[in-house]
């Protein structure tokens, strides 16, 4: 049995076409079913639904053989013990710094001010500001980062941006692009050896499908 860990929402939705290319069809809709283990049309393949941030953990410890996870999540997790054979080019966005539209970020940086930065992505934020030589106090949040500068909790946020509509709706502007983000396939290292015969065709089908989309 091959177990694939996915999170509900954009990762599940955007992985479906890749699974289809590998001849795998998920037999239940996670938005309507309450099940956490979903059968597929292939008796040897199942999908487990986990929180996006838990995908690397499931795959690292063998709770799943394969998983799909954002580069953001992977960097924060550390990626240890995971084989990362493919950039699936799905769930694309960017990691950015944003501030209230009336905050002069450029002069704060120029003057060497200490910035209060709220984020879920403390590893990425710490490395980015350290590389720029900007001193920051990081405030760890688990969601709704956009609220932090509006309430005086922070001067800036580090968050994912895709259309930019969320920033705009909250009067925030993007002042730095830290990195481009897409989702990766991650594979448990032991599973890759022990379940080669089942995993290899899935990797090949995904890889061909990505090339076709490019
Ligand atoms: O939502 P939940 O708390 O359950 O978990 P999650 O946020 O970790 O999962 P999910 O499904 O929202 O995100 C999974 C992965 O999708 C992330 O790890 C990213 O790699 C990728 N991804 C791609 C995104 C976005 N685009 C995205 N736009 N993840 C989040 N967003 C959020 C962003 O945080 C911000 O709040 O969408 C908002 C901005 O979108 P725009 O279009 O208004 O700019
Ligand atoms: Mg989310």
TrEMBL record:
Gene Ontology cellular component list: cytoplasm
Keywords: Amino-acid biosynthesis, ATP-binding, Cytoplasm, Glycosyltransferase, Histidine biosynthesis, Nucleotide-binding, Transferase
GO molecular function terms listed in the Swiss-Prot or TrEMBL record: ATP binding; ATP phosphoribosyltransferase activity
SUPFAM superfamilies linked to this entry: Periplasmic binding protein-like II
UniProt key word Membrane: no
Residues of the ATP phosphoribosyltransferase catalytic domain: 51-206
Keyword check for Transferase: yes
EC number: 2.4.2.17
Broad class of enzyme this protein falls into: transferase
Pfam families listed in its UniProt record: HisG
Localisation: Cytoplasm
InterPro entries with a match to the protein in the record: ATP_PRibTrfase_cat, ATP_PRibTrfase_CS, ATP_PRibTrfase_HisG, ATP_PRibTrfase_HisG_short
Free-text comment on this protein's domains from its UniProt entry: Lacks the C-terminal regulatory region which is replaced by HisZ.
Subunit text: Heteromultimer composed of HisG and HisZ subunits.
Function, as annotated: Catalyzes the condensation of ATP and 5-phosphoribose 1-diphosphate to form N'-(5'-phosphoribosyl)-ATP (PR-ATP). Has a crucial role in the pathway because the rate of histidine biosynthesis seems to be controlled primarily by regulation of HisG enzymatic activity.
Family indicated by similarity: Belongs to the ATP phosphoribosyltransferase family. Short subfamily.
UniProt-recorded name of the protein: ATP phosphoribosyltransferase
Organism: Hydrogenophaga taeniospiralis CCUG 15921
């Amino acid at each position: 049995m091959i177990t694939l860990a996915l999170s509900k929402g954009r990762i599940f939705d955007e992985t479906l076409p890749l699974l289809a290319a590998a001849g795998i069809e998920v037999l239940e809709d996670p938005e309507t079913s309450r099940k956490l283990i979903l059968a597929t049309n292939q008796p040897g393949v199942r999908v487990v639904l986990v929180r996006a941030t838990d995908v690397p953990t499931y795959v690292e410890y063998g709770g799943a053989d394969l998983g799909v996870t954002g580069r953001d999540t992977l960097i924060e997790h550390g990626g240890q013990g995971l084989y990362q054979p493919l950039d699936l080019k799905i769930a694309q966005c960017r990691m950015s710094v944003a501030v209230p539209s009336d905050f002069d970020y450029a002069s704060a940086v120029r003057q060497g001010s200490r910035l209060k930065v709220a984020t879920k992505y403390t590893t990425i934020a710490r490395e980015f500001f350290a590389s720029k030589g900007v001193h920051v106090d990081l405030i760890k949040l688990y969601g709704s980062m956009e609220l932090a500068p509006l309430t005086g909790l922070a001067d800036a946020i580090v968050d994912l941006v895709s259309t930019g509509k969320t920033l705009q709706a909250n009067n925030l502007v993007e002042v730095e692009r830290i990195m481009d983000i897409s989702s990766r396939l991650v594979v448990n290292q032991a599973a890759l050896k022990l379940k080669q015969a089942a995993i290899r065709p899935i990797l090949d089908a995904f890889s061909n499908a990505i090339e076709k989309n490019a």
